Amino acid sequence: MAALSTKAVYGLAAMHVLSHAPNGRSMQVREISAMTQLSHGYLEQLLSALRRSHLVVSTRGASGGYKLARGAHEIEVIEIVEALEGPFYKIEGNVGSSLILEYYWKEIEEKMRGLFASKLSELDRAYQPHFYDI
Fold first, then answer.
1. With b meaning 16 or more CB within 10 Å and e meaning fewer, what string describes 68-93?
2. CA quadruple 8, 74, 123, 67: dihedral positive or negative?
3. For the segment 60-71, what is each residue's pLDDT rounded down to a tens digit?
4. Alpha-carbon dihedral of residues 25, 85, 131, 17, nearest 10 degrees?
5. What CA–CA distance (Å, rounded) separates 44 from 40?
6. SS in 3 state form for the chain?
7. pTM (predicted TM-score)
8. How far apart are CA 64 and CA 25, in angstroms?
């Protein structure tokens, strides 16, 4: 992964909305869609990937929907990004068999993982002016 796509950014926004569901109740896709301004279909794709990665759980029925699988203070941003983008660091094919180059990229990966190790609950500081009415 060279950069974060809108998929990761939108997934983070959806997870942030879910982290503010009152009493951890399930939220329907239409509710999340209205709060994030994301299309219903695209949001369903994102939530499906997050469900496969065990970051959200879904329930069927009239009062069903999605909710976080764990507390927002337990979910790292990197987990969300990797669930939607794939592995954060991956050398594909032969990169010249250079141990120095591999060491360099491994060091970059460690630094980037440190940056994205913050918890979902910590995003409130960044989203302070963007609280949603739930």
1. bbeebeebebbbbbbbbbeeeeeeee
2. positive
3. 988 789 999 999
4. -10
5. 6
6. CCCCCHHHHHHHHHHHHHHCCHHHCCECHHHHHHHHCCCHHHHHHHHHHHHHCCCEEEECCCCCEEEECCCCCCCEHHHHHHHHHCCCCCCCCCCCCCHHHHHHHHHHHHHHHHHCCCEHHHHHHHCHHHCCCC
7. 0.79
8. 9
